[in-house]
Every structure is written in C-alpha cells, then in structure tokens.
Amino acid sequence: MPKIKTSKEEVLKKVIPILRSRGVQNSSMSELSKACGIQKSHFYYYFSNKEDLIREVLATVHSYFNYNLFKIIESNTLSLNEKVLKMKLLLDKLFRASDGGCIMANTALETIHLDPTYKKEIQSFFKDFILGLQRLLEVHHSTEKALLLAEQMVQDIEGGILLMQIYDDPKYLNNAMKRTETAILNL
Amino acid sequence: MPKIKTSKEEVLKKVIPILRSRGVQNSSMSELSKACGIQKSHFYYYFSNKEDLIREVLATVHSYFNYNLFKIIESNTLSLNEKVLKMKLLLDKLFRASDGGCIMANTALETIHLDPTYKKEIQSFFKDFILGLQRLLEVHHSTEKALLLAEQMVQDIEGGILLMQIYDDPKYLNNAMKRTETAILNL
DNA sequence: ATTATTTTAACGAACGTTCAGTAAAATGCC
DNA sequence: GGCATTTTACTGAACGTTCGTTAAAATAAT
Question: For residue B42, which of A57, A79, B38, B132 is within the disulfide window of CB 3.0 to 4.6 Å?
C-alpha cells in the first residue's frame, strides 16, 4: 500500500467536533481539511462532495450512539440503576464534552428548511433516542406512558443542551438528566 | 422613480421569517433584499452591515415578545386560566406560525460558538421567557420551585419545537404546552 | 509499470460590502 | 408662490475574498 497519511475514518473523527460546534454551513472545506492536516482537494478522494461528507458524519454519529445505547439497554447483567448511570455517561460524552452540544439537533435546525438531505437520518436518530429511553421507562410504566415520557425527556434534554450553551452552565442539562433518572427509576 | 418604497421597520418585518427558517448564515443579503423588493446595496442605508441587521432583528423579536408576554402576566383583569390561554397563543404565533421555529434558539445554536455578538440578546430573551413562566407558576408554587419548573418548561418547549420541525408534527410542542398549563394551574 | 494516495493550481459562482450616481422630497430664500 | 439648494431614498455596477469543486501533476508502494 502507498504511504497513508490519513484514512477516511480518521477524517470523519477529526471533522465531527468542528461540525458540531461551528455548524455545517460555517465549516468550510478549507477549514475542515486544515484540521485534518490535508489539502482540501483530498477530501474529494474520500467523499464525492460536502453533502456526502456531512451525510457520512451523521451516519457515523448515529451508529456510534445506537451501538452504545442499545448495548447498555439490552444488557442482561446490568441493573436498572447501572443502566441509567451508563446512559448518562454516554449522553454526557455525546452532548456535553467540548463545545457544540448535539450535532443532530444543530444540523436539524440549520438545514431542515433548506435541504431535506439529512432529514431522514436525523429523524432516525431521534426515533432511536426516544425508543431507548422508552425501553428503560417501560420497567416501571406502561408502554404508552413510557413513550410519552420518553418524548418529554428527549425534549427536556435537548432544551437543556440549548440553555447549557447559551448560559455556559451545565446545570440545565444536569437537571434534565436528573429528571430522566427519576422517571426511569420511578422515584 | 425613487419614491419611498420601504422603511427600516418594513424591512425588519419582512426579513424575520426568512432568517428564522433559513438561518443567519444561509440567508444572503441578496436573498433578503429580493424579499424586500429592494437592491441589496440599499440595506447598507439602513444597517451598517449584516451583523447589525441581525442584531436589530433579534432586538425587535425580543421586544415584541416581552411587551406581549408581560402585558398578559401583569394584567389585573385576566384570570390565571385566561393568562395561560393567551400565553399559549403568543407562543404559537412566535414558534409555530409558518416554518422555522424559534429564531432565538436557531440563532443561538448557529452562532454562539463562532461569534459572541448575539449572545447577550439571546441570554436576555431566555431570561425573560423563564421569568415570565416563573411569575405564572408562583401562583401555586414557591419561588424556588417556580424557577426550576419554569426552566424545565422552557427546555420542554424548545425541545418540542425541535422535534416538531424534525417530524413535521405539532404534537411535540402541543404536549409541552399542555404540561406547562398543567404545572401553572396546578392540576 | 501500475496503482493508490496526495498536492498544486485553477475554476466559476456567490459572498458581504463599497461607491458614484440619480430622482424625488423637503427645505430655505425671495 | 416660484425657484434654488440640500437631504433623503434608492439603484446598478463593481470590489476583493471565499466558497465548493475539478483536473492534472507529483509522489509513494506494490
């Protein structure tokens, strides 16, 4: 094989935090390539265009989220308390670590009224997010009540991510996570 | 030819729905001017630059929101039930009517990690949003409990606006509004 | 030599912004 | 009231810069 400076996976990994904090439109191919240490034209070796890159970024985030969330939820060895704890750590990693909040929510609000390209992926992500919470809530609630609560929890969390960023204060997301924990454990 | 074609107030009014649905970065001066029926160069007669235009747009939305919200809350003639109803209509008008959701949330997520220019205005808007809800909640709750609930309601509503746009379904915002009503009326 | 990886150089289009110019309206002067 | 001047409202063309994208050349591994 020829000398590999970087790989597609590496590019995706390095590009995610930038797109999350700066947004899709505000992240130029020049800026993204600089962060990867390659020429911007080299992006077109991996991706056919910018839209394609964003699509792959969202798919990567979604599959990472899904894999980890359902690994926790469907575990046979973890207690409900442990599952809640692990889920909180996962959400922290995705939504809090460094700046930028939730890349799915950010991209949704930025693009959904311009270009439906990413809509299905984003819908699918939130469907899984809600479904995951619903599964945990079903331990102590009925299926219908669990769904309604799961939707409320996702709204609470996403609103918390918004306020967290506006006020540079993690308490809003923390409070939403506490309320989610209370609902799941039925305290 | 050039009589008075438009005014600063008219420009602000026409520009708001576009900025709300397409975002700040995705709305070019050309596009905005076209929607106002004037040349883009004429924008610079009213505003010193694009940033200045956005700042005035946010200030306009904020003052419109504040005037109407606190007129309802501080009324001596309206019952609590009526206040809740009127508030719901106001939030509907601001967040639901046409596409785009909440311009304050959209602008926050789009710009807050790039440019702190709009941060103070957005912070101030959400401070007033929370304060307004807190006032209504204080009828049946303690001051501290009312604040915590008000923050939760704003998070719920903003998350609901997000899901409403992602799934083209008003139920998410509707549910958040119902929960807000329940909390205020202490049902 | 061939294939895979990466760079250099350039493209047209769109961006925000500036500026000289112009027509209508408002104002000042008689 | 009529005329000259200034101010207000607006246009159209152009500016330099950045955008996403492409083609071709260069480099490195098999």
Answer: B38
**Chain A 19-48, CB < 7 Å to strand D:** 27-31, 40-41, 43-44, 48
The two three-digit tokens of residue A149, written as one number? 């609560």
pLDDT in tens, A28-40: 999 999 999 999 9
pLDDT tens per residue across span A74-106: 999 999 999 999 999 999 999 986 679 999 999
Determine the structural domain holding residue A117 and report its residue range: 59-185
- Looking at residue A98, which CATH number applies to its domain? 1.10.357.10
Q: Which of residues 24-63 of B touch strand D (CB under 7 A)?
A: 37-42, 45
Answer yes or no: is A97 within a domain.
Answer: yes
Handedness of CA A67, A68, A74, A75 (dihedral sign): positive
Query: What would the pLDDT profile of B5-59 be if each residue is shown by its tens digit?
Result: 789 999 999 999 999 999 999 999 999 999 999 999 999 999 999 999 999 999 9
Answer whether residue B15 is part of any domain: no
